Amino acid sequence: MPYFIDTHCHFDFPPFSGAEMASLTSAAQANVRQIIVPAVSADYFSRILDLAANYPPLFAALGLHPLYIARHQEADLATLASALRDKTDKLVAVGEIGLDLYMDEPQLPRQLTLLNAQLQLAKQHDLPVILHSRRSHDPLAAVLRKAALPRAGVVHGFAGSLVQAQAFIRLGYYIGVGGTITYERAQKTRHVMATLPLSALLLETDAPDMPLAGFQGQPNRPERAANVFAVLCELRPETPQEIAAQLLENSQQLFSLPSVN
Asked: Which of 8, 202, 213, 260 lies 20 to 30 Å from 58 when distance is taken between CA atoms?
């Protein structure tokens, strides 16, 4: 069976902080061999870059998350631009960026300004983006259409409609499949992931957030990407081997990841 890549794990947060080797060992035992760690604010850039430099399975993404819009400063964009200029092969994306219209006081004009600036940095440095989107799929798609990024990216943790997912795919974006599909009540999302072309899907956990069914109340973990995969196999017509191989190819292609020996 091809190995798994968790394309979205906040490995710089507890419970992984201080237990990196044990956490990576647990992930590897579940055949999760590579993990992309997206930032949420400039405060975490250095730590994420250090993690990627020191642990071969880890890769960095740097960006300013819309949920922290009240925290971000103008200087943070300059910090991001500087980090991207100095990027190594372990820095594989700009993220986590995007739009969030679910939170209190979303400050949409400021979110849009920040998002557009980061999309331009991604274009300048030829990097894909990792996108957060809550109740914002349609306006986000409109922004992405105008930005016309050559490397596109992934809309992570997708829980929108089939039509919205197809709109992102037409723009060249992948759709992140996470723990939501492990809940039988999530019929809309399960149907979307069963229907979309396999060539458009990526595997993710969003650990330590978004716990899977059966693990409520516990921090999510990268090894549970294997559980998400198992449920995806139940929903789709392809064989597990075909699904695993295509998910791996999708992840390697988008993020230019090296193969694991």
From this structure: 213
